[in-house]
Automatic annotation (TrEMBL):
Residues 222-417 form the HD-GYP domain. InterPro entries: HD/PDEase_dom, HD_GYP_dom. This is HD domain-containing protein. The chain crosses the membrane at residues 7-25, 37-56, 68-91, 103-123, 135-157, 184-212.
Amino acid sequence: MTKKLKFYLSTIYLSFLIVFIYLFYEYGFPNNYSHILFLLSVTLVLNNYSIFFNYITEIKTSMTLPVLISSFYFINPFWVGIITAIGTITYKEEIKYFVWYKFLFNRSSIFLASISGALIFNITRPVLDGNSFPFLSILLASLAYFIINNFFVYTVINLADNDVNKMTLVSYFRELSKNLITSYFLGLILLASYIYFSKVLFVLIIILLFIIKDFFYSRLQQMNSYTQIIESFLKVIDSKDHYTEGHCERVAKYTYHLCNEMNLSRAKSEKIISIAKIHDIGKIYVDDHILRTSDNLNDQEYEEIKRHTEYGYQLLKDIDLINDELDIILYHHERWDGKGYPEGLKGEAIPVGARILTACDSLDVMITGRSYKPPMTKEEVIEEFEKCAGGQFDPEIAQKIIELIKDGYFDDKFKSEEKIKELELAFDY
Ligand SMILES: [Fe+2]
Ligand SMILES: [Fe+2]
């Protein structure tokens, strides 16, 4: 654990302690426990059966906010904090694999976030909503809870230096904001049923949601089989093409960052990233000796290796689950200037996914090197992209890659200068 992270965690724990003591003196014990016990049990049950699951970033969102919205309305801020802090304890992740500092961080951050929401609700309600249904104050309270809670989590992810989850603050919040909107409306429905009808209707609506959940779940399962198919193909590629082991997976990672920078729909980005993972699948049909001796190929052998794009396309085109966007595989060696293969497509006639993939594919070759050329330094790669923008690469995409490289996104992938020198010597130039 880094010093920064330790300091950050201690600050959160301390803030939790101070706010807890202060609010306890302010609000003390409640007169009526029925709302508290009811909402606490609902939160606990729902949190251990999350409904929505974002499979790409693996960020789990749950029913916390929709139920929290009713807590804002019925319960004072201190007890809202207690309900949320206890109600969000998940058995599978937190009790079974108990790590005290994680557990304490989760409790403290969610306590602080939920009491912030509750305080904002109490302050803004008389001004914004008066005696009417509190649409606006709930919106503000939900926003406050959402921003504070996710900011805590975002900061801890980034300080923990976890490569997989690193994303920009904007893309992190953009990803989650869809859940915020759903949660807000769900929360309003639950609150209205609680105020105007009863706890019974509140529970019935939640049961209804669980029935809908099955629908989401079957969709999720479909996505899982999709991922499994991709992963199996990935293993096949690696076993066939040892020299480029890990190439497809790295290319997919670059593609992920690039897609985040481009204005593509989420569904499209996900497809491109998955296809990137298996873009060289056609190589399984190319003769082993050609793959292994890719430095000194004769014309006929070179023609054969070029056919991997078509082989890959032909192999996958009949699998319904993945045949969308498959032309990315077919065209991932086309060039912006029309000098690529297999069809010599030019400029925007090449699908955008294929243009992205071409750039990421080349980026990996530059960074890792091949048997016939040593790896490049960061500066050399930037130069290469500047030089080839408008030639091999779509100029806009080349520019985006340069920005990502300059922002340090791929720093951990570049080899050190000493290592490159060592490799260059071995190359016999
Ligand atoms: Fe390729
Ligand atoms: Fe490739």
